[in-house]
Amino acid sequence: MSISGLVLSIADNKQMLGLRYAEWATRAPSLEADIAAAAMGLDDLGHSRVLYGCLEPLGDDPRGPNRESDPASLSALPYFDEPWSSWAQFVAANAILDTAFTVMIEACVNGNVEVLQHRLRKMLSEERYHFLHGRSWLRSGIEKGPLDEAWRQALEWFGAPDGDTAALHKEGKLAMGPAELKSRLEEQLETKSPPMELSWKGWDVRRRRTKPGAVDAPTFGMLRGLEEKRFAPAAKAQD
Amino acid sequence: MVTDKYKRVSGDAVEYEVFARKTRGEPLHQVGSVVAPDDDLAAAYARATYDEERWIEMTIVRKDHVIALWSPGE
Q1: Is B6 exposed, middle or buried (0-12, 13-18, 19+ CB in 10 A)?
Q2: From A38, A107, A172, A182, which residue has the greatest number of CB atoms within 10 Å?
Q3: Distance from CA of A228 to the nearest CA of B (A)
Q4: Residues 6+ apart with CB under 8 A from A149
Q5: What tens digit of pLDDT does each residue of A105-151 get?
Q6: Chain B hits for A33, Cβ within 8 Å
Q7: What is the ipTM of this complex?
Q8: Is the Cβ–Cβ distance between A175 and A110 less than 8 Å?
Q9: CATH number of the structural domain B14-65
């Protein structure tokens, strides 16, 4: 995978994370947490737009025509395929996955690709508050299921020890490889990842995930703005 | 939705006052308050709730750390 493929995956994941955060803007356990969910959702949707905007200057844009028709064209994690049904899923995503994306952005900012060095830096300061929010709720204790799943998907997303991110690290495009990304995530969260064996069978290098599946058609339509197009005024006939 | 296990505020939650200013020339002034169980979450909540304006500085203070000299009616 090229660096632009990786940037597209960060963008797709942040778009989905923003959407799922926003779905909890009236369901979180407190009014403050509602507002934080809405604010973090806005941040991540904004970050995804900045990341999509990096694809052109990077060249080698990996987006094909099926981006407008196929939900499986998105390279987001299985964690975002379905809406979250519990607050524990929200917290696990906020603490583990959001921080994993930030750690990858840090690797881009400190790598040797100029456009990423400049355009992504501001995200790191905004993400600080997502991190504080996630870590604090994580410390209050949540169920193991969503936590283990988030860890598994984060570590898979970092890539295999000898895979594409390791190669990008070797080329200097990323300042960290899979092992360093994992250590950095653990250091940030002040905890070790749960013991687990990662299997790379079924690894889809383009989508950066091992499980098949995707968001449903209405969600995909909403993401692509297909729903809104129904309400758009009809195009004027050319004179 | 499974949120009933998570209370709005836990027994340890405290109130924090939020202060901010827009220019170096003005003093910090109170812009609101948040309720949170720890400093980290209070910072995240303050930023999420009161970040709509272009503050150059924002701080939070635990309300129980504020020393009152006198209060209304005293």
Answers
A1: buried
A2: A107
A3: 27
A4: A79, A92
A5: 999 999 999 999 999 999 999 999 999 999 999 988 889 999 999 99
A6: 45
A7: 0.79
A8: yes
A9: 3.10.20
